[in-house]
């Protein structure tokens, strides 16, 4: 029995959800997202509640039950509130700058790293050492944040690099004389 799937998704005010065949479309103030519904689950929209139930007792159907409900919840939350990831840049001379649809990162390399910002994701440099990646699609926001972090991941000796704001880096001692 899915613990996640059995709870209905509440649709907040300002968000409209429609079911067109095998596609579920959510529209809100932050945009429009679509989700392809698996053949293994059944989705019902009743007022401002969306419920998901498996069509059979197969293991895959039960797995898709919880997965579909979680994706649906993220979709509804994304078009109403949005998602964001905060990245912290640590290191002498390490900084970031956003100009239009390009993110320029100075990370100690001989060249600047230039990252093209995708259309449905917004990146803001609150400080030269603090980036905020935000958007309606949770998967896309996390993917963009992970790609930016991969240019210079945090290292355990001095803590230099790009890390998530809530991430804790376990520090190592280093060489002894």
From TrEMBL:
<dbReference type="InterPro" id="IPR019906">
    <property type="entry name" value="Ribosomal_uL6_bac-type"/>
</dbReference>
<keyword id="KW-0694">RNA-binding</keyword>
<keyword id="KW-0699">rRNA-binding</keyword>
<dbReference type="InterPro" id="IPR020040">
    <property type="entry name" value="Ribosomal_uL6_a/b-dom"/>
</dbReference>
<keyword id="KW-0689">Ribosomal protein</keyword>
<dbReference type="InterPro" id="IPR036789">
    <property type="entry name" value="Ribosomal_uL6-like_a/b-dom_sf"/>
</dbReference>
<dbReference type="GO" id="GO:0005840">
    <property type="term" value="C:ribosome"/>
</dbReference>
<dbReference type="InterPro" id="IPR000702">
    <property type="entry name" value="Ribosomal_uL6-like"/>
</dbReference>
<protein>
    <recommendedName>
        <fullName>Large ribosomal subunit protein uL6</fullName>
    </recommendedName>
</protein>
<dbReference type="InterPro" id="IPR002358">
    <property type="entry name" value="Ribosomal_uL6_CS"/>
</dbReference>
<comment type="subunit">
    <text>Part of the 50S ribosomal subunit.</text>
</comment>
<dbReference type="Pfam" id="PF00347">
    <property type="entry name" value="Ribosomal_L6"/>
</dbReference>
<comment type="similarity">
    <text>Belongs to the universal ribosomal protein uL6 family.</text>
</comment>
<keyword id="KW-0687">Ribonucleoprotein</keyword>
<comment type="function">
    <text>This protein binds to the 23S rRNA, and is important in its secondary structure. It is located near the subunit interface in the base of the L7/L12 stalk, and near the tRNA binding site of the peptidyltransferase center.</text>
</comment>
<feature type="domain" description="Large ribosomal subunit protein uL6 alpha-beta">
    <location>
        <begin position="11"/>
        <end position="82"/>
    </location>
</feature>
<feature type="domain" description="Large ribosomal subunit protein uL6 alpha-beta">
    <location>
        <begin position="91"/>
        <end position="164"/>
    </location>
</feature>
């Amino acid at each position: 029995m899915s613990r996640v799937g059995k709870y209905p998704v509440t649709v907040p005010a300002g968000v409209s959800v429609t079911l067109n065949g095998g596609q579920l479309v959510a529209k809100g103030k932050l945009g429009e997202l679509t989700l392809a519904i698996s053949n293994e689950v059944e989705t019902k929209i009743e007022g401002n509640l969306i419920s998901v139930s498996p069509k059979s007792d197969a293991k895959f159907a039960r797995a898709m039950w919880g997965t579909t409900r979680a994706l649906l919840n993220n979709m509804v939350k994304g078009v109403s509130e949005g998602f964001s990831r905060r990245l912290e840049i640590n290191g002498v001379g390490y900084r970031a700058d956003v100009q239009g649809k390009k993110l320029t990162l100075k990370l100690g390399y001989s060249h600047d790293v230039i990252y093209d910002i995708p259309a449905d994701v917004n990146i803001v440099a609150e400080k030269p050492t603090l980036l905020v990646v935000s958007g309606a699609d949770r998967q896309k926001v996390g993917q963009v944040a992970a790609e930016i972090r991969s240019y210079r991941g945090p290292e355990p000796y001095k803590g230099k690099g790009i890390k998530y704001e809530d991430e804790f880096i376990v520090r190592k001692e280093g060489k002894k004389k």
